[in-house]
Amino acid sequence: MKNSYISRVRRKLTLPHDKKKEVMRDLEDIFATAKERGESEAETISRLGAPDEYARETEAAFGVDGARLRRKRLAVVAFAFAFVAVVALAFGVAAGYGVQRIPEGAIGYAEAMTDIEVEGAGFDVYAAALGAGSVAACAAIALGVAATVTRKRRE
Amino acid sequence: MDGNYIRQFKKGSLELILLALIGKKERYGYELINELNAKGADVLGYAREGTVYPILYRLEAGGLIGHRLVPAPANGGNRKSYSLTPEGARTLEELKKLWSAYSVCVDGFIGDTEDEE
User: Fold this and answer.
1) Considering the domain B3-108, what is its CATH architecture?
2) Is the CB of A54 inside 8 Å of chain B's CB atoms?
């Protein structure tokens, strides 16, 4: 009961990290003190109020707009993913270009596959970079959409 | 009467009451709640952690109160003991003056509604 209350508040409460840590510490303290004084967890919870409301009131006390801060953090993560996407895709394309290019001054060029096996070449850098880039791009787009949707819903 | 209306009304005075209680001596959070319930439950309603702690956070963020952590082995950690900052002591004095003037003023308006004709 106590644990589910505390984890619900933890999930709902958006504050700068040091403030949040303090609030969570205080909650543990509130429960511990109440227990020491012979109070049940249910009684303590009834005095704390609904966890969502507790989180909201606490955000307001610190002058923090939790929803806004959540969006901001989401946007930072989205930008990070977008950055990774751009770098990885650029690298992937460059690597792919390198594979296709015939070195200058090369004598002869085999159109068909040779049966020479290069050891350790099982890992395709081109595909890996392209894959990572695509995944990161999708994540960035999804986060961007999520941030926009939550903002719209709030308004 | 509208519950929300009453709640707003009490919230403002609760900040002053908490400052006054902390101003008398250093106190733990649960002591504040006990004290509120012992003296004011019939008028203010039962003080709850869910109401009091956010106010304490606000007062602390505003630099009016501070706390120190006192080891509390029984609950396996530390307990916060709140006290006024110099700024808090000044604010308390100002608010006390304002409150007296305010209550006299409000009384003046609501006290003689009948002799007006």
Assistant:
1) Orthogonal Bundle (1.10)
2) yes
